[in-house]
Structure formats: structure tokens, C-alpha cells
């Protein structure tokens, strides 16, 4: 994207002000412009690095076709564990929303109406993205084994950013790059704009506001505050995440927005820490063993399909000493079809002819690693190996067990990859309703303020795969339309 206003000078007035230029922000901007609103997008990055996390992701969507969401979309989101919720509140939420009390309207629990809005609007939104110039296909998933249906934009998230960005410019959307939203402007109880910081100073940008500026994975202070000491051993999964500093969440909370989602957790995936490439994920671990710096196994590497379990595996890695583990494979892994699809690092593996020499190269205790490998090998049972499906080929008599794809690590050369848990996005955010309106601590919508994407809290303990970009597009589009149809009344 290029063009638009490079820097704000003095106060400016638009119908809709969108903060953030990822899939949620661009969807909001386009949707608002389509119905005649004047729109500006505020983006802290340069034009070349705009697009947030979306620019760097493959952007898998939990859809079985361009028109229909996956059959398990609603159930998967609603099954996310949200602690031991008061049953009286759960019962109350079965009634019409108008009858809910404040605890039900602001409770930290997945909102059925939001999930239903996502499912209802998913097909229409993906078809709209296609009209905007994005093409979709059933592309290979790096997890190798999967539990649901997905489609992906050809060219990944970058293709979405380029297509929607070009379309936005054509319909007159303005872009302010290297510009950071600092606080919301209020007039009574109405949000009337944002105060921004540019290279040239401060300015007030007036209009209904759509917050679409991501979580706080790029803010070490907020990460430490909310997720604790684990933050020091993690890092953002891609360059776009570093731009997500959490101001959007903080400015909304500052005016009374209700919080939602699990602030102490984040979506993670296992990556090679030696690589600086975008999302250098390692999803081949189910076909080997994982050991920590002490040379010990610490988790079931293959409890089920990788796409359903990789976040939980990544989380256990994060809890190891220094937040690091090592995937160890032997030559038998060569018969796993498309194994390299699940190894996205641009760094070569560590290779050795013996387990002891491998341990020395990894700087972990060789005797302990030898013991671990021997115990694992002796616990492997006989059966038929099937790399494409959970095959029940398991261990017996050791803890932790390995539930699938358990074969001895015995044929050299042996290879290893270091793994850490990368932060894809944070879970905690602000509460919105099915209209993408931001909800306050009394359960009422805040006039003039909308939000979409990773800034909104939806997840609690386990990410429902291939829903982040999808919800960003769906609720970004809803937010843009609602903001354009309900312009703020200025004094």
C-alpha cells in the first residue's frame, strides 16, 4: 500500500477511524468505505511493514469451502475451557440478552451470540474477500495430521493485505503510517476520535473508532504483567507481532471497557529459535521424541492430530528450563511423507552419528539422553505405522507415554532441532458483542467504539485453529459497517 496521508498535521475529521491495518482493520476500512463513509487507517508501522500479523501468516481459515464454515466451528469455540463458571450465570445466558444482568453481560466466558455471528457471517465474508481479489484453495497444512477442514488464501496473509490494501486505496481510504493511537477522545459517554502521535507531533483524528490493532505480544512489560516469567523465554512468532504493543486494549480499558479472554495465556506454536524467518515452525515432533536441557522427555509428543495439539505441546515446552526443548529424530523419519512440510525453519538440523555425540552438540547430558532414548526404545510396541493418521502405535510402561507414531530412535544418523514456544498472539482483550460494539463494565455498548481481531478476547485455554484471521475478517467487516451506519454526533 502507498499513497494517502503520510503524517497527520492538525486535527482531521472522518466518518470512521480504523486503528490497525491487518485483516481486521482493512476489512473494517473497506466495509465502511463501501457504504460511502470517509475512512482513515492509523498504522504504527511503515507502509512496507504494515499489515500486522496477517502479513506473515498463511491465514488458514476454518472453512470446508468458500461458502461454508467447518462443521465443528461453533462447538470447538464453545468447548474452550473458561474455568468453573457460576451455573446460575450460564443458565441466565440461555435467555434473551435483554434479560441478562451485569454478571452475565460482562462475565469472562465465551459469548454464544458472538460465536454464532462468526459462523453465520463466515461464508458471506470469505465470498466478499474473494470479490475483493483474494483467491482461496485447500492448501497443505504444515501440521501434517489434521482434525478439521481448512482453506487458505493463495499467497497467504500477504496476498490478503495486498488485495484489500489496493482496493481500499481505490475507494478513497486514507492511510497514516508511522502513526500511533495513544488515547480515545471522549465527549460525555461518546467516543469521538483518537489522539495520535506522528513523526511531526500529536493530532486528534475525529470519527467513530474501530480498534483493530492486535494484542500485546510486542510489549514485554504487559507480557510480564499478565503472563509472568514465561514471557522471557518466548518471543513473537513473526515481525508483525512486534508492532502490537497493547495500547488499543489499554485505551479501551481506561474508558471502562470490559475485559474478556484469558490475559495470562497466549496462542503459541513451536519454532526454531535459531531462525529469523517468519514463523519458522517445527511441526514434525510427533514422529520423534522431545527432550529438555536435562536430556529427559517431559510430554506425550503425539496425543492426537498435530493441528489439535500443537499449542498444548508448545506450552509444555515453554515450561521447561529456559523454555527450550529438542526434537530428536532418526533415519526412520525419512519414510514420513511430506516430513519437510512440517519443518519450516531455514536452519539446518544438528546431526550426529550417535546419540552421545548428538547430546554433546546440543550441550545436554549425554548419559541422561542415552538413558532416555533407551527407555523410550524399550517401551515401543509393535504395530503398523501410519504417518497420515493417529495410528495407536504407542509406548507401554513409561511416563510420559507416547500415544501415536512411537518408533524406536535407533537408526543413525540422528538429527535434532531446538524448539521454543513462540507467541502468535495474546488471548486477553476487550469484550465485544455480535455487532462488534465494545462493551463496558456494566454490559452496555460504548457509543462510537468498535473492535475486531486479536484485540478482542475470545480464547481462554486452547486456540481453536484457523479462526484468528477468519474472525478478524468477519468482525472487521461488521465493525466497519456498524461504525459507518452510526456516525458520531459532533458538537
What does this molecule look like?
This protein is an alpha/beta fold and 491 residues long. The protein folds into two domains: 12-265 and 427-485, FAD/NAD(P)-binding domain (3-Layer(bba) Sandwich), CATH 3.50.50; 268-422, Succinate dehydrogenase/fumarate reductase flavoprotein, catalytic domain (Flavocytochrome C3, Chain A, domain 1, Alpha-Beta Complex), CATH 3.90.700.10. The chain has twelve helices and 18 strands. Strands 1, 2, 5, 6, 7, 8, 17 and 18 form an eight-stranded mixed sheet that branches. A hairpin with a 5-residue loop joins strand 17 (437-439) and strand 18. Helix 1 runs parallel beside helix 6, helix 5 (112-131) crosses helix 12 and helix 10 crosses helix 11 (366-379). The chain is elongated, with a radius of gyration of 24 Å.
Keywords summarizing the entry:
491 residues, FAD/NAD(P)-binding domain, 2 domains, six-stranded mixed sheet, 18 strands, disordered N terminus
Query: What is the fold named in CATH at topology level of the largest domain?
Result: FAD/NAD(P)-binding domain
First-residue to last-residue Cα separation:
34 Å
Oligomer: single chain
- Based on Cα principal axes, name the global outline: elongated
Specify Rg, calculated over alpha carbons. 24 Å
How many β-strand runs? 18
Mean pLDDT: 94
What is the H-and-E element order? EHEHHHHEEHEEEEHEHEEEHEEHHEEEEH
Instruction: Profile the largest sheet.
Output: 8 strands, mixed
Which structural category fits the helices and strands?
A: alpha/beta
Per-chain topology:
Layout: E1 12-19, H1 23-34, E2 39-42, H2 73-78, H3 87-92, H4 102-106, H5 112-131, E3 136-137, E4 152-153, H6 156-170, E5 174-176, E6 180-187, E7 190-198, E8 201-211, H7 220-227, E9 235-236, H8 247-254, E10 259-260, E11 266-271, E12 289-291, H9 306-318, E13 324-329, E14 350-352, H10 355-362, H11 366-379, E15 414-426, E16 429-430, E17 437-439, E18 445-451, H12 468-485
Parallel strand pairs: 1-2, 1-8, 2-5, 8-18, 9-15
Antiparallel strand pairs: 3-4, 6-7, 7-8, 10-16, 11-15, 12-13, 13-15, 14-15, 17-18
Amino acid at each position: 500500500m502507498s499513497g494517502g496521508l503520510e503524517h497527520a498535521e492538525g486535527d482531521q475529521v472522518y466518518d470512521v477511524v480504523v486503528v490497525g491495518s491487518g485483516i481486521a482493520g482493512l476489512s473494517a476500512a473497506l466495509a465502511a468505505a463501501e457504504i460511502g463513509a470517509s475512512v482513515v487507517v492509523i498504522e504504527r508501522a511503515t507502509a512496507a511493514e504494515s499489515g500486522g500479523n496477517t502479513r506473515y501468516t498463511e491465514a488458514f481459515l476454518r472453512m470446508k469451502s468458500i461458502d461454508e464454515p467447518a462443521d465443528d466451528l461453533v462447538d470447538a469455540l464453545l468447548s474452550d475451557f473458561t474455568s468453573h463458571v457460576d451455573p446460575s450465570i450460564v443458565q441466565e445466558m440461555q435467555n434473551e440478552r435483554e434479560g441478562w444482568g451485569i454478571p452475565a453481560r460482562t462475565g469472562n466466558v465465551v459469548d454464544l451470540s458472538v460465536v454464532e455471528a462468526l459462523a453465520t457471517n463466515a461464508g458471506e465474508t470469505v465470498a466478499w474477500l474473494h470479490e475483493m481479489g483474494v483467491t482461496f484453495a485447500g492448501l497443505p497444512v504444515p501440521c501434517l495430521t489434521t482434525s478439521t477442514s481448512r482453506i487458505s488464501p493463495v499467497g497467504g496473509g500477504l496476498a490478503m493485505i495486498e488485495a484489500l490494501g489496493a482496493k481500499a486505496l481505490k475507494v478513497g481510504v486514507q492511510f497514516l503510517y508511522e502513526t500511533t493511537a495513544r488515547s480515545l477522545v471522549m465527549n460525555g459517554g461518546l467516543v469521538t476520535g483518537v489522539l495520535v502521535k506522528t513523526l511531526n507531533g500529536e493530532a486528534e483524528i475525529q470519527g467513530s473508532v474501530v480498534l483493530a490493532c492486535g494484542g500485546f505480544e510486542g510489549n514485554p512489560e504487559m507480557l510480564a504483567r499478565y503472563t509472568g516469567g514465561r514471557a522471557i523465554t518466548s518471543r513473537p512468532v513473526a515481525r508483525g507481532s512486534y508492532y502490537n504493543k497493547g495500547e488499543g486494549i489499554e485505551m479501551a480499558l481506561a474508558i471502562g471497557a470490559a475485559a474478556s479472554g484469558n490475559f495470562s495465556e497466549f496462542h503459541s506454536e513451536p519454532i526454531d529459535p535459531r531462525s529469523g524467518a517468519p514463523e519458522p515452525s517445527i511441526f514434525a515432533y510427533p514422529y520423534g521424541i522431545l527432550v529438555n536441557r536435562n536430556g529427559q522427555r517431559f510430554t506425550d509428543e503425539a496425543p492426537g492430530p498435530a493441528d489439535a495439539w500443537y499449542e498444548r505441546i508448545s506450552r509444555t515446552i515453554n515450561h521447561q528450563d529456559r523454555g527450550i526443548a529438542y526434537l530428536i529424530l532418526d533415519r526412520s523419519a525419512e519414510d514420513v511423507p511430506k516430513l519437510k512440510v512440517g519443518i519450516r525453519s531455514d536452519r539446518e538440523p544438528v546431526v550426529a552419528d550417535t546419540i552421545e555425540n548428538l547430546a554433546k552438540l546440543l550441550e545436554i547430558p549425554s548419559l541422561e539422553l542415552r538413558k532416555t532414548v533407551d527407555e523410550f526404545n524399550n517401551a515401543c510396541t509393535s504395530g503398523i505405522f501410519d504417518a497420515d493418521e493417529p495410528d495407536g502405535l504407542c509406548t507401554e510402561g513409561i511416563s510420559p507415554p507416547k500415544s501415536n507414531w512411537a518408533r524406536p530412535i535407533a537408526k543413525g544418523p540422528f538429527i535434532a532441532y531446538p524448539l521454543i514456544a513462540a507467541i502468535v498472539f495474546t488471548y486477553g482483550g476487550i469484550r465485544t458483542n455480535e455487532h462488534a460494539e465494545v462493551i463496558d463494565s456494566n454490559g452496555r455498548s460504548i457509543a462510537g467504539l468498535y473492535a475486531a481481531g486479536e484485540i478482542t478476547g475470545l480464547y481462554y485455554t486452547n486456540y481453536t485453529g484457523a479462526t484468528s484471521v477468519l474472525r478478524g475478517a468477519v468482525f472487521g467487516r461488521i465493525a466497519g459497517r456498524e461504525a459507518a451506519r452510526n456516525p458520531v454526533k459532533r458538537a
